[in-house]
Amino acid sequence: MQETHISLAHGNGGRYMRELIDELFARHLANEFLDTTVDAARIVLDSGYDPFVTTDGFTVKPLEFPGGNIGSLAVHGTINDLSVAGAVPRYLTLNAFIEEGLEVAQLERIVSSIGVAAREANVLVVAGDTKVVARGEGGGLYLATTGVGLRDTRVDLGMHRIQAGDAILVSGAIGDHGTAVLLAREQFGLRGEVKSDSTSVFTIAQALLKAGGLHFMRDPTRGGLASVANEIVAVSGHGVRLHEPSVPIQAPVRSVCEMLGYDPYYLACEGRLLAVVEAGRAASALSAMRATAGGEASAIIGRIEGAQRHVVLETELGGERILEELEDDPLPRIC
Amino acid sequence: MQETHISLAHGNGGRYMRELIDELFARHLANEFLDTTVDAARIVLDSGYDPFVTTDGFTVKPLEFPGGNIGSLAVHGTINDLSVAGAVPRYLTLNAFIEEGLEVAQLERIVSSIGVAAREANVLVVAGDTKVVARGEGGGLYLATTGVGLRDTRVDLGMHRIQAGDAILVSGAIGDHGTAVLLAREQFGLRGEVKSDSTSVFTIAQALLKAGGLHFMRDPTRGGLASVANEIVAVSGHGVRLHEPSVPIQAPVRSVCEMLGYDPYYLACEGRLLAVVEAGRAASALSAMRATAGGEASAIIGRIEGAQRHVVLETELGGERILEELEDDPLPRIC
């Protein structure tokens, strides 16, 4: 395409739209299943597995941040939802809502990142759609992705399997993504020392499945670790007790949060996995996680309790703090 | 939920978001596969069929218009893409990008319409995500839907099957949706006499599959009939000749287009189906279409030609007009 910026004509169903789709999107996302001339894409799903679907919207601001951009984030977010369900991600569909005036070069960097992240995760983008909205009716670019994956029919994971006494593990430091996005926003005037943790957790999830004793996995994105813990309490009916000194938090994340008044327990991660594992298998699960690339900083951070219905954080000083369910918005458009 | 308008807190991963999802979305879309506490939904796909996926974004303005709203439009658009591929729609995923300040009552009307349209089409919404963007960064509500369907493995449809001499049929009047949306925009100061044609074309598509001789189907949405015809020319390498007096166009659509300078051949339909059928089977295909509810006004409107590489419209006065590929945007945010 010749144009340097997206115009409304790129959304009208005519030549400009065809060029945008063929010369930008399809070029970076090409695979044997992607055909821009069909209404629906045929996919192949091996028999003997349970198919899983998941979907996510992405509105992060700024569109590019240290450690990733909205494109890599969308791929990671979607394959992570399949991964923590115990499935192997196979196919993605992609929707792009593009604001008039977006620089084509920036769009191309983002779509290129989608292609790279998809290839790294061994998933194929098989269908897509683009819409252009007028200046002032969008945030540059919003993405929506749907993922299809396959899970071994013998796997049973979920909130229903969580029991009192289970150990809670996390695959790395929390709050990196939220902090990186925060720092990337110009109005704070701070330089970004922290990179987003945006990445695939698929390898870690598979290692946990093999290690055994696994009851539940989740990626703590919007609302962070505290929100996942509160959801466990709300759905499973068990309490959650976290041991603050064991929770990995990077020093710069800690100091940025102190400076700006944020609580790292509520900040999004986009490449971390929280696992609930049978107590007797916690040590071997931890070893399995630490043996994966990206899981080296994994830690046992707490346990499931039967006696109470809160998320309790045992502080370094021996006190206790309740991590309440989030009421106000700490950081809009973070994912 | 207690609130009358959407706030940023409805997007933060905490209590407000949970209430929005559980009390508004899940209430209207409830089915045995939808579980708001999981990351990915297990679906069941009967063996012996080819799975198909499709995805679409929706940005129509205004959000509600005579004959439908962005919610029913999203369901119809997605199941129609599966239907014209010859598949039976089974599952949907739904993404909602909601602008801060949207009236909750309006959102509820729209989500309710999604539920009604899905039930009518016998599809289940199995996964969803909501994001809230700040005032001035959205158009009220954008939706993205992905559909999963199943097709008989023996079906072979597509541009590759189109041959010179094939008949072109359409299932009803063209341009109704585009015109209805146009009239619903206040700035034109015209009353809406035209209703959107937004509906499912599944029954018509299945009737055509049974009738035999079917080579290709498409729903002429963005860019209208002229854009589908131009895509046939570009991809199949054959010409398209349309017979203007045979193309069904409602009188009010025609007069609105004349008044405002739009060409109905480029205006979106959201419930029409264009079919390319073997010449000898055109009459029986037409009968099959006319026998369906919603297909009563079906017509044979033209034929595929080998000799030229354009879309030619034979006018009522015996002249010829080339329907060029769309260059400029006739009507943004129409779907």
Layout of helices and strands, plus pairs?
2 copies of one chain form a homodimer.
Chain A: H1 15-29, E1 41-42, E2 49-58, E3 64-65, E4 68-69, H2 70-84, E5 88-99, H3 104-121, E6 124-133, E7 141-152, E8 167-170, H4 176-184, H5 202-211, E9 214-218, H6 224-236, E10 239-243, H7 251-260, E11 274-277, H8 282-290, E12 299-305, E13 311-314, E14 320-322
Parallel strand pairs in A: 5-6, 10-13
Antiparallel strand pairs in A: 2-7, 3-4, 5-7, 8-11, 8-12, 9-11, 10-12, 13-14
Helix pairs in contact in A: 1-3, 2-3, 2-5, 5-8
Quick overview:
Two copies of one chain form a homodimer. Chain A has two domains: 145 residues, 60s Ribosomal Protein L30, Chain: A (2-Layer Sandwich); 164 residues, PurM-like C-terminal domain (Phosphoribosyl-aminoimidazole Synthetase, Chain A, domain 2), CATH 3.90.650.
